[in-house]
Amino acid sequence: MQLSKPRIRVAALVAAAFYLTPTVLAAADLKIGLVDQRRGVLSTDEGKAAQAKLEAMIDKRRKEFEPQQQSLLDTKEELESQRFVLSREAFEERAMEWEKTKREVEREASAIQDELAVEERKMLRPIVERWEKAVKDIGDEKKFDLILERSMPGILYQKDAHDITELVVQRMNKNKAPAASE
Q1: Percent of the chain beyond pLDDT 90?
Q2: Which of 1, 40, 112, 135 has the fewest CB atoms below 10 angstroms from its CB?
Q3: What is the value of pTM for the model shown?
Q4: What are the φ/ψ torsions at residue 29 (nearest 5 degrees)?
Q5: pLDDT digits (tens, 9 = 90+) for 117-141
Q6: Domain 31-174, CATH homologous superfamily name and number
């Protein structure tokens, strides 16, 4: 007996349905939670304090660096105003000096950014470690099968009911870290 193409398709669909049914039923029992770690960590009391401290450091460094930036701009304006007064060679020489100074200022700005990024990681590391422990504890208590980072590639949609970020923030604020000796 030979099956027609429509009958083969129906048979394939029925076989696929029987094959996938256990997977679908198992997925129905899966309890999933999502967290936004960056937002959550910075929403905790500790995270807010670290962020304020970091912003103070950024402001301090910016104020220290502004005179160099302003001097660079002033030198550029002065150089442009003398473009037609100076000889071509003198102008090119001063322009090259300005470019050299500009590169030095840019290198220093980059070094400051790197330093601040390292400082941010240092300040947030213990908070992130406590965050991860709080996520694990909540996962165990609430019997989650899986808790994912919201910003993970591949998560295109989620119900807000699955987001437990605020629950973790509340847990961390309730259970403060012991004060660090400085």
Answers
A1: 65
A2: 1
A3: 0.68
A4: -90, -5
A5: 999 999 999 999 999 999 999 999 9
A6: Skp domain (3.30.910.20)
